[in-house]
Amino acid sequence: MVLHSSPMSAPVRSFGRGRLIRRVANSLVGRAVSIRVGTGTIRGIVACSMVQAGTPRIVVAGAQYPLAQVLTVAPPDLLPES
């Protein structure tokens, strides 16, 4: 595996990609997010993160979403209006 030299290369190398993505998912707990769902968007606070079939996911309003669907992240007091 070849890593390009950049400020982010060291964390990727030391943690591994999967572990780094899990840390990102964990860092979203308690944050306000907007998530793409179909052709719409939902907004809410991330309750927890988990790994399902090797893919980190977040839970918002009782439903699980992969990180790829997250559009925005903000402090919880800045939860956008629906």
Can you tell me about this structure?
The chain is α+β, with helices and mostly antiparallel strands. It has one domain (about 15-75): Roll (SH3 type barrels), CATH 2.30.30. The protein is about 20% helix and about 40% strand. The protein has a 5-stranded antiparallel β-sheet. The termini are far apart. Mean pLDDT is about 80; it is low at about 1-10.
CATH topology: SH3 type barrels
Q: Roughly what percent helix?
A: 10-25%
Q: Output the number of helix runs.
A: 2
CATH class: Mainly Beta
What share of the residues does DSSP label as strand, in percent?
Answer: 35-45%
CA-to-CA gap between the ends? Answer: 43 Å
Number of strands: 5
Model regions low in confidence, pLDDT < 50 over at least 5 residues: 1-12
Backbone structural class: alpha+beta
The outline comes out as globular
Topology as a string of helices (H) and strands (E): HHEEEEE
By CATH, the architecture is named Roll
The Cα radius of gyration reads 14 Å
Count of the domains:
1
Mean pLDDT: 81
What summary fits the major beta sheet? 5 strands, antiparallel
Strand order in space, largest sheet: 4-3-2-1-5
